[in-house]
Amino acid sequence: MDDAGFMKEAISQASKSKAADGYKVGAVLVSGNRILSKAFSGESIQYTHAEEYAIKKYSRDLSGAIIYSTMEPCDKRRSGKKSCCDLIMANKIRRVVFGTFDPDTRMICNGIETLKNAGMEVLQLKELEEECRRLTPDLF
User: Fold this and answer.
1) What is the pTM of this model?
2) d(CA 124, CA 59)
3) What's the pLDDT band for 140 if we cut at 50, 70, 90?
4) Catalytic annotation, pick one of 51, 52, 113, 130
């Protein structure tokens, strides 16, 4: 499967979300063209962010893995939990592929900038951006 195929799986995950705040985000962790873990926002009460929960569900070495997320990973959390960027970097995930930037104006998100500044490979799949935006139409 290629980047678009894995992002479509993340979009499928996001469509399962019943997130109360309007965020419907999906994430897929991949290594060697094999899916390690999938998650969506609100899948667990304890772990609300899709990227966070995908990492928690796998709970093994993720060095060199790729994470696909329908939305830019957060670099700050109002809850005080570690940000998704911090979790991605701490787990040595080497590449981040995302669908759309975080549109929320309540908190300015600099996730992509944070990851790039840390030397990570980051790619936006612009061809699937509109599909990712349609998941959370109230935010765009």
Assistant:
1) 0.93
2) 26
3) low
4) 51
